Amino acid sequence: MSVRDIEQRLGIAHSTASIWVRDVELTPEQRDALRRRPRPGNTLHLRRRQAAQELGRLVARRGEPLHAIGCMLFWAEGSRHTNCVRLTNSDPALVCLFASFLRHYFDVPDQKFRVWCNLFADHADLQHEVEQFWLDALGLPRECLTKSTVNVYSRYSKKIRKNTLPYGTCRLTVHDVRIVQHLYGAIQEYAGFERPEWLLSDAQRRASSAARAMLPGWRR
């Protein structure tokens, strides 16, 4: 039980409960369990995430090819966050297909998309053209572009780049909890597994990872 649970159960002051349990040592598993428990203020957000995942499962059961493709692209190439959809790739056709998927199923307007480019050193003189290539491919205005990153050559590369990517890589981002949780629910439905941690907030995930890192032999 948390200190808050104890004070509410016994009807005592928070400071009193803290004093009573200050010498109680918790195991890493117990700390992890307490961190995972939703706080009172987070219950509404948790219910919304659960509802979005359930909707994703329902749509997945319809077996629509574009929906399945979009979810699998996100599972393979996306970043795991609670409140934003983020996919990075060097293939323009792949990124454009994912954008079409988001527009079709979630009516994402142009102004909600964010585009970030990761460019190589030899792109420096062509940065504007490369950025515009991605924007044109995605059908987005320049207002959607965030500051690009231009890498520099390492001293070991001898300024020779292998496996050349002519347009670097592009990261497409949409900040929307509803969409990302829809995708999480659909992926679990398609693949037939359960991933409860996908309902956690980003802060809860970080706390959970830190607690697991304290377990004996966790990194072995």
Task: Describe the protein in words.
By secondary structure, this protein is α+β, with helices and mostly antiparallel strands. 50% of the residues lie in helices and 10% in strands. The protein contains nine helices and four strands, in the order αααααβαβαββαα. A four-stranded mixed sheet has the order 1-4-2-3. Helix 1 (3-10) packs across helix 2, helix 4 (43-60) packs across helix 8 (177-191) and helix 5 (65-77) crosses helix 6. The radius of gyration is 22 Å and the shape is globular.
Calculate the terminal CA-CA distance, rounded to whole Å: 30 Å
Mean pLDDT across residues: 87
Task: Assign the structural class, choosing from mainly alpha, mainly beta, alpha/beta, alpha+beta, or little secondary structure.
Answer: alpha+beta
Q: Identify the strand order in the major beta sheet.
A: 1-4-2-3
Count of strand segments: 4
Shape: globular
What is the helix tally? Answer: 9
What pattern of helices and strands is seen along the backbone? HHHHHEHEHEEHH
Rg estimate, integer Å: 22 Å
Report the biggest beta sheet as strand number plus sense, adding barrel if it closes: 4 strands, mixed
Low-confidence parts: none
How helix-rich are the residues, as a percent range? 40-55%
Question: What portion of the residues fall into strands of 2 or more residues?
Answer: 5-15%
Oligomer: single chain
